Amino acid sequence: MDTKQEIARRETGVSEAAALVPPVDVIEDDAGITVTADLPGVTKDSLVMRVDGDTLTIEGQASLGESQTIEPVYAEVRAAHYKRSFTLSRELDTANIDAAIKDGVLKLHVPKLEQARPRRIEVKAG
Amino acid sequence: MYGSLMRLPGDFFADLSELQRQVEQLVGARGWPSSIRAVGRGAFPALNMGTTAEAVEIYAFAPGVDLGKLEVSIDKGLLTIAGERQSDVPDESDKLNVYARERFAGTFRRVMSLSDDVDSTRVDATYRNGVLRIVIPRREESKPRRIDVKDMG
Fold first, then answer.
1. How confident is the model at residue A7 (pLDDT cuts 50, 70, 90)?
2. Which residues of chain B are within 8 Å of residue A64 when distances are taken between CB atoms?
3. What CA–CA distance (Å, rounded) separates A50 from A41?
4. Which of the residues A27, A37, B3, B28 has the least number of beta carbons within 10 Å of its own beta carbon?
């Protein structure tokens, strides 16, 4: 009797490697949207960010530097890969995403397009 | 009828009852006791522990923690990892909308019990890319040792 994963792999040709969903903080202000994500063990080199149409995907491979011969005894974190996707709206400038990762914390800022920023409209007395 | 339903592979009811069994096991509800220090999912920082022939290695997943606010200590075979992580999210105001606030902020404390065969005077702790790695070597006499058998015949 095949497991669900084996059947899925056969039918789609894709194996679903387990990925962790990193917790995020998302805030929006006049300048754009800031996303902060917890990606412990991920460095600038193992971080992949992709914009595909209106979808932003953050992926990272964690490296812990553990010994080769280690045997797990207790594991709350059972995968070394993080992945999370977001759909963005059209007023965001996806070509100018600014991102930095330090101590496993990714901070990325998606600015709003110039014409989408809040603008005050002058009301002239008529 | 219900008997055959339970045996279908990947069926909804089997998954649900398996999930329920796992949750019950985690909180020690069903006979198998859970460690008195075990916490449910979602504790910060998450911990992994592994062993090698020479040492015990503990990994705490604590990104963005200021080392000045992190305290690692061992007392009577209990390893304690405690500290504080500031929230990056400013308070909601007219100029700001907070859509998600999933990351942990505040003080944390996690405790793990260590086996007797580790040498707690020679602990090595490093913090890299948000992962705290603690290596505690085993006592010399507890390491696996090969014993030679003398031939008396």
1. low
2. 59, 131, 133
3. 20
4. B3
> Tokens 């909180």 label which residue?
B27
- Give the tens place of pLDDT for each residue, B64-107: 999 999 999 999 889 999 999 998 888 777 788 888 889 999 99
Look at residue A71 and give its three-state secondary structure: strand
CA distance from start to end of chain B: 69
Judge if B104 and B60 occupy the same domain: yes
> β-strand A71-75 against B46-51: which pairing, if any?
antiparallel
Q: Are residues B134 and B83 part of one domain? A: yes
Bridge partners (DSSP) listed for residue B58: B49, B134
pLDDT, one tens digit per residue, over A73-95 is 888 888 899 999 999 988 898 88
If interface means Cβ-Cβ distance under 8 Å, which residues of chain B face chain A? 9-10, 41, 43, 45-53, 55-57, 59, 61-65, 87-90, 95-104, 112, 127-131, 133
Name the nearest CA neighbour of A51 among A92, A103, A102.
Answer: A92
CATH topology of domain A17-64+72-114: Immunoglobulin-like (2.60.40)
* Rounded-to-5 percentages of helix, strand, coil across chain A: 10, 40, 45
pLDDT in tens, B116-135: 889 888 999 999 999 999 99
